[in-house]
Every structure is written in C-alpha cells, then in structure tokens.
Amino acid sequence: MTGFDAIEEVKEVLENTPLSMSGGIYQFSKPLNKEDDEFIEINSLALPETILQNCNVNANIYVNDIVVGTPNNGRLKALTKEVNTAFPYLSSDGNIDISVRDTDIIPDIDNSRHYVNMRLQVMMLNE
After folding, report:
1. Secondary structure, 3-state, the chain
2. pLDDT tens digit string along 74-100?
3. pLDDT of amino acid 4
4. Which of 59-86 are b and which e, b meaning 16 or more Cβ less than 10 Å from the residue's Cβ?
5. Does residue 41 surpass a pLDDT of 80?
6. Residues with Cβ < 8 Å from 110, sequence gap 6 or more?
7. Average pLDDT for residues 12-38, to the nearest whole number?
8. Domain residues for 103?
C-alpha cells in the first residue's frame, strides 16, 4: 500500500460521513480559487514500506473567517465534530485502522480563513 491508498481510504470514509460542509473534499492540495467557503484537503506524510504501515494523514478542515483574522469558531467546531464521528474506523477486511491523533487550529491569513489540522493515524497491513 502507498500514501495514495491511505489518502483514498480517508477520503472514502469522509465522503460516506454526513457533513454539513458547503464545499468538497480534495486530495493533496487545496483549490487555487476561493469558490468554496468550507472544504477539506487531505494529504499524507511519508509512509514506511513495511508489513504493518503506520501513516499520518492530515485532514485539513478549512472555513472562511468571519472577518479577516477572526476565525469562524462555530463552523470550525461543528465540522470538526462531524468529521470526528467517522473515527475510529476499521475497514471491513480489518486491514486498515484509522484514528484521530490530534488537532490544531491554524490561520491561513493569506486567504482570509482558518483551518483545523486533524492528524489521523492510519495503520495498514501491507500484503
């Protein structure tokens, strides 16, 4: 399995989770334009090439600021709570386990928004 597999699994789990988010779920990079007020961007850190793989995947939940520099804490909190309902997750074959490691709120001042960086631990059996 690869980092692509980990990201695709997280994306699939999130797409099957009821989210009140106005925008989409993107892999590897956020959209270049600001058409979506709210969206999730998924990327991963390095993945070891071992039998039992432990990968960190970032699910970044973006929400436009109320005014520049003032985060929309209500929406960030609500969306984080919704995403949290998807985890922990265990695949039907038992080969993939996903859990939340930690979260952090980070400003994206250049784009007048903040995001919650939700770091997920993805454990996969590399057969």
Report:
1. CCHHHHHHHHHHHHHCCCCCCCCCEEECCCCCCCCCCEEEEEEECCCCCCCEEEEEEEEEEEEECCECCECCHHHHHHHHHHHHCCCCEECCCCCEEEEEEEEEEEEEHHHCEEEEEEEEEEEEECC
2. 999 999 999 999 999 998 888 889 999
3. 81
4. bbbbbbbeeeeebbeebbebbbebbeeb
5. yes
6. none
7. 87
8. 3-125
Q: In this predicted model, which residue has the larger pLDDT, 122 or 31? A: 122
Per the structure, the count of domains in the chain is 1
Amino acid at 91: S
- Amino acid in position 77: K
Most confident residue range from 5-19, 30-44, 50-64: 5-19
Contact 62, 113 (CB under 8 A): yes
CATH classification of the domain holding 45:
3.30.2000.10
Are the C-beta atoms of 120 and 58 separated by less than 8 Å?
yes
Taking the C-alpha atoms of residue 3 and residue 126, their distance in angstroms, rounded to an integer, is 12
